[in-house]
Amino acid sequence: MGKTLFDKIWDAHVVKTIDGGREVLYIDQHLIHEVTSPQAFNGLKNRGIGIRRLDKILATADHNVPTINQHLPIDEPLSRLQVDTLQKNCDEFGVTLYNLGHENQGIVHVIGPELGITKPGMTIVCGDSHTSTHGAFGNIAFGIGTSQVEQVMASQCLILTRPKTMRINVEGTLAEGVTAKDIILYIISQLTAAGGTGYFVEYGGSTIRSLSMEERMTICNMSIEMGARGGLIAPDETTFDYVKGRPNAPEGVKFEEALSFWKTLKSDSDATFDKEYSFHADDIGPMVTYGTNPGMGMRISDLIPDGGGRASFDKSLEYMGFRSGQSLNGQVIQNVFIGSCTNSRIEDLREVAEFVKGKKKADHIKAYIVPGSYKVRQEAIQEGLDEIFEEAGFVLRQAGCSACLGMNEDKIPKGEYCISTSNRNFEGRQGPGARTILASPIMAAAAAIEGKIVDVREMIRGNGKA
Predict the structure, then answer these.
(1) Over 90: is that where the pLDDT of 20 sits?
(2) What is the band of 214 on the pLDDT scale with cuts at 50, 70, 90?
(3) CB count in 10 Å sphere of residue 42
(4) Do 144 and 230 belong together in one domain?
(5) Are residues 37 and 168 in the same domain?
(6) Tell me, what's the pLDDT at 466?
(7) 3-state secondary structure the chain
(8) Within 13 Å and on the Cβ side, how many CA atoms surround 126?
(9) In sequence order, what are the beta bridge partners of 297?
(10) How far apart are the C-alpha atoms of 126 and 35, rounded to whole Å?
(11) pTM
């Protein structure tokens, strides 16, 4: 019987099988940041041991960092403490750190791919749930807890139970105005926020194969929002072209050798998955969420469904100030956030710039764009995107996680709505009492221009006005 891509990679990294069917898995790359690493470093100090593979660990500051005036000392006490602690720990243990001001600094799941650290066939972990982003390159990437961060630091291995496998196929051509973000929000809305629990998901089909690497990263990034352990996409020419020439990619003969291996990374034609689903691009439209988990999403043309009397559903709508049967087309908002490890890459910024060029945001809207890395910001400036944003009334800030999770000063005021390109819409995620509506970058941009949620397709058809 054939093997899935997931099983091929997993089996190649199993060091040994232990009692209870669990397996010791070798980890190729460990990424760390300021939030989940301090306790792990302290654990090593208490045990008097060092890091097993310094060449396989990389640190950056991203979660708590301010997105303005990064050249100045951090004002917020907790953020300053965490970033300073990361610097001290990395200095003490000899870990490479891309801190504020470094040309490689940025959101951990943005800098890995852009620096060529993320390559096909790897196992990659980080103390951050959205590590699944890296699966877009055809590897096993997943988030781990702080105790596991220490375990990888000490041994370069993890003791794990193998997840089940799921295949999700999407076929067809996306309509204009429909994006990768809409694909994954649609899938989650159909399978629910728990539909992938216990599984590692492989995405396939003609729609997925047509996506750029940045779009594939958006898909894999949100795999965990349906409860999955992670997501991956088989590498192809799009993948190889993206990796080639990046700073940490192999060169010359070594690249050709790596390429020969990468081309074997696909599920066999007779591979069996524990569960499979199929969707068609024609059924997917611009998506928005209406509740307080990513599974509570709908097409902008739909109405908020009835919760069937479920208390949790009713509580979610009450928090959001919505009701069953309501349309969100025309819903007034106050904030727009374009950023996060889901949608903060240069391709996202280019798409937004092209859409808002020559337009102005609504006067009451606070709109800011937070690039995923120092390099993305510099590239945006070199291309003149910053001038387009400024003329449209958008603020281009500095790299960081920002209002995705509100761990710095970038918080949404209580009771206000924010249409956000991030990945989670939990209660208080973007600040106490904040109301988050997830959407694609161009849906967010359209809302900023109109001052309310609109169907971006109407603006495209109407040459700029809904």
Answers:
(1) no
(2) very high
(3) 14
(4) no
(5) no
(6) 60
(7) CCCCHHHHHHHHHEEEECHHHCEEEECCEEEECCCCCHHHHHHHHHHCCCCCCHHHEEEECCCCCCCCCCCCCCCCHHHHHHHHHHHHHHHHHCCEEECCCCCCCECHHHHHHHCCCCCCCCEEEECCHHHHHHHHHCCEEEECCHHHHHHHHHHCEEEECCCEEEEEEEECCCCCCCCHHHHHHHHHHHHCCCCCCCEEEEEECHHHHCCCHHHHHHHHHHHHHHCCCEEEECCCHHHHHHHCCCCCCCCHHHHHHHHHHHCCCCCCCCCCCCEEEEEEHHHCCCEEECCCCCCCEEECCCCCCCCCCCHHHHHHHHHHCCCCCCCCCCCECCEEEECCCCCCCHHHHHHHHHHHCCCCCCCCCEEEECCCEHHHHHHHHHCCHHHHHHHHCCEECCCCCHHHCCCCCCCCCCCCEEEECCCCCCCCCCCCCCEEEECCHHHHHHHHHHCECCCHHHHHHCCCCC
(8) 29
(9) 289
(10) 11
(11) 0.97
Distances (CA, A) of 278 to 70, 190, 297: 45, 11, 18
pLDDT range class, residue 121, cuts 50, 70, 90 = very high
Q: Are residues 132 and 77 in the same domain?
A: yes
| pLDDT tier, 19 (very low <50, low <70, confident <90, very high otherwise) | confident
Question: What CATH number has the domain bearing residue 107?
Answer: 3.30.499.10
CA separation for the pair 109, 32 (Å, rounded): 10
Token pair, residue 72, equals 């100045």
Q: Write down the pLDDT at residue 465.
A: 62
Task: Tell me: do 273 and 240 sit in the same domain.
Answer: yes
Total tally of structural domains belonging to the chain? 3
Do 330 and 432 have their domain in common? Answer: yes
Residue 358's pLDDT band, with cuts at 50, 70 and 90, is: very high
- The domain boundary residue, chosen from 139, 160, 181: 160
Q: What is the mean pLDDT of the chain?
A: 97
Mean pLDDT of all residues in 241-253: 97
Q: Are residues 156 and 169 in the same domain?
A: no
Residues 295 and 431 in one domain: yes
- The model's pLDDT over 360-414, given as tens digits with 9 standing for 90+, comes to 999 999 999 999 999 999 999 999 999 999 999 999 999 999 999 988 889 999 9
| Cβ burial 356-366 (10 Å sphere, 16+ → b, else e) | beebebbeebb
Asked if residue 466 is part of any domain, the answer here is no
Q: Is the pLDDT of residue 463 over 70?
A: no
